[in-house]
Amino acid sequence: MARQEVTYEEVAAAAISLQEDGTRASIDAVRAALGTGSPNVIHQHLIEWRASEATPPAPPSAEIPPSVASALGNWAQQFAHEAGAGVREALAQSESDMADLLASSQQLEAERNELRSQLTGMTIARDQALATVTERDEDIQRLTVELRNARLVATEALVGKAKDQLAIEGKNEQLVDLRAQIERNVASQASVSDARLTAEMELIGAVTARDNFEAEIKELRARFDASNAERSALRAELEVLRARQ
């Protein structure tokens, strides 16, 4: 006849009896107390009994001890200070960069004003040089007309004197006067030629000065444009730094 397995009630009663006697309710102890039973069945019944007998442990207190709370507060303050150190340093660096950019911008502004002043002065000098060239052109034209008139006068005088010489041939005194007049006319013509040559040389010098002024003005304008471009770049960087703050 097959052996009948022990029941839950039997296993539970044996386990309670063992506990009351101060003995641990193990599988072997329960089986020995019952005198029968499969270890697997007894094990299953013990698990069920232990689950019914077990009382849930009391939840731990959620209150933070004062010492832990104080340490946690100190840690939070230290963490906030250290975490903000990088931001404060970046802000200080940004403010320093802004100050440098403002100083550079002011310096460029002063340089631009200086270049503008120099450009104005060079423009005035160029206009004066152009006025001098125009004046020299007028002098050359005037001297050219005077030279043409002097040559005409000298030619007419030579023709007249030649006629007089033919008319009074043999008169040495008149020949001497005629020769003197011709020499004076020639000397006058040479003086006019020298004046014209001097005016032409002055014109060449004025034109050269004008070209030099124009070259200097171009250079100043290039520097002025470069200064404006650099100042615009500095302003853009300043705006970026302000936007970051």
TrEMBL record:
Coiled coil: 91-125, 210-244
Annotated KfrA N-terminal DNA-binding domain residues: 7-118
Pfam families: KfrA_N (PF11740)
Keyword terms, alphabetized: Coiled coil, DNA-binding
Key word Coiled coil present: yes
InterPro entries, per the entry: KfrA_DNA-bd_N
GO molecular function: DNA binding
Annotated protein name in UniProt: DNA-binding protein
Species this protein is from: Massilia violaceinigra
Upper classification of the organism: Bacteria, Pseudomonadati, Pseudomonadota, Betaproteobacteria, Burkholderiales
